[in-house]
Amino acid sequence: MESQSLDLQIDALNKVECDKIFSEKISGTKKDRPALENLLEVVSAGDSIYCYKLDRLGRSLKDLVSLMETFENRQVRFVSIADGIDTAKSGSKLLLNILMCIADFEAEIIRNRTIAGLEAARKRGVKLGRPVGLSEKGQVLARKAVEMAEEGMRICDIKTKLKVSKPTVYKYLST
To answer: Which of 61, 107, 132, 141 is 20 to 30 A from 70 in CA distance terms?
Structure first.
């Protein structure tokens, strides 16, 4: 799994000598993307937008197509460094559309596999999500925490003795 560090991407953008770099550590699937919004506010005809990789710009086919249309309407060149896409070169628009379709297809496959996996787990009796209430161990610790508190022991001493966090002690005391 790739690190969330932007260093690799920024190094690639610096190598092609970008004048300004817009970056954010927000999933491409999120609607609120301030850096992308800032880019779209300042980009104008004749500009070139470089992106490290197509999936860094967006993960939805619909959003990518919309952005590409915006760039084309504003007469802005788009370059995806790692994907070898440059809308100033012939054939890149076709390649870009094919890659976006493949990316969307892959995302749909992942969604379907996740849903199927969750359904299979449910059929096997696996309980999904957080467990309801305290586990047996948690119940034992809760009783001990209450006993210690009733004996006048301080919360910080209880947490140290039980090897749990302060919020956990308070949770046990409230049950």
So the answer is: 107
Please state the domain extents for the chain.
Answer: 7-123, 136-174
- Domain 7-123 superfamily per CATH: Resolvase, N-terminal catalytic domain (3.40.50.1390)
pLDDT tens digits, 135-152? 677 777 778 888 888 888
79: enclosing H helix or E strand: strand 77-80
Q: What is the DSSP letter of 59?
A: S
Contact 71, 87 (CB under 8 A): yes
pTM of the predicted model over 0.90? no
Kindly list the strands in the beta sheet with 85-86, ordered across the sheet, starting from the edge strand earlier in the chain: 48-51, 77-80, 85-86
The HSE-up count of residue 163 (CA atoms within 13 Å, CB side) is 1
Of the CA atoms within 13 Å of residue 116, those in its CB half-sphere come to: 6
Residues of the chain with pLDDT below 50 are 1-3, 28
DSSP characters for 40-56?
HHH--TT-EEEES-HHH
